[in-house]
Amino acid sequence: MMPKASQPPPVTPQQIDAILPYLDAFERMGFTCGQWPDSGEDLIPHFEHSDPVDRFVQALYDNGWIEPFDWTEWTDTAKQLIDSPNRLASADATTIRRLLTTHVRQDRFCEGHLAAMFESGHIVAALRRLRDIRATMQP
């Protein structure tokens, strides 16, 4: 018999506070998530994230947002949250943590995935949802 996977600890106000400041940067006029540099003919194309995105991803790792779970089994759920803003708008913090984990992990295997999530407004929408959740928590 396989042991049952343990539930991750709940998302804390401190974890949310650690990444919410990035929302202002991402909503700012002129924000860019990065670029595809002209790599010439001999290099594999890669996406270069802007500094705010790099710092955001590091803050996710540093503050327990990147959860160890089988995110590949969760991609259908992530797609539903991407495709349905109403579903994302009612997601809980644990679901947002899994969503952010999935996006960061997916970006390692599909170059530019995270950039696409920024460009579509999905990451901003997830952070706005976290802002709403944080407003309901004790300080």
Fold and architecture overview:
- The chain is mainly alpha-helical and 139 residues long.
- It has one domain (13-28, 47-135).
- It is built from eight helices and two strands; from the N terminus they run H-H-E-E-H-H-H-H-H-H.
- It has a two-stranded antiparallel sheet.
- Helix 1 (13-19) runs antiparallel to helix 8 and helix 6 (93-109) crosses helix 7.
- The termini are far apart.
Quick rundown:
This protein has 139 residues and is mainly α.
Features:
139 residues; globular
Query: How many distinct folded domains?
Result: 1
Q: What's the arrangement of strands in the largest beta sheet?
A: 1-2
Termini distance? 42 Å
User: Largest sheet, if any?
Assistant: 2 strands, antiparallel
Q: What is the percent of helical residues?
A: 55-70%
Q: State the total count of DSSP E strands.
A: 2
Global outline: globular
Proportion of β residues?
Answer: under 5%
Give the class from helix and strand content and strand pairing. mainly alpha
Low-confidence stretches: none
Number of helices: 8
Question: What's the helix and strand layout?
Answer:
Layout: H1 13-19, H2 21-27, E1 34-35, E2 48-49, H3 51-62, H4 75-83, H5 85-89, H6 93-109, H7 113-119, H8 122-135
Antiparallel strand pairs: 1-2
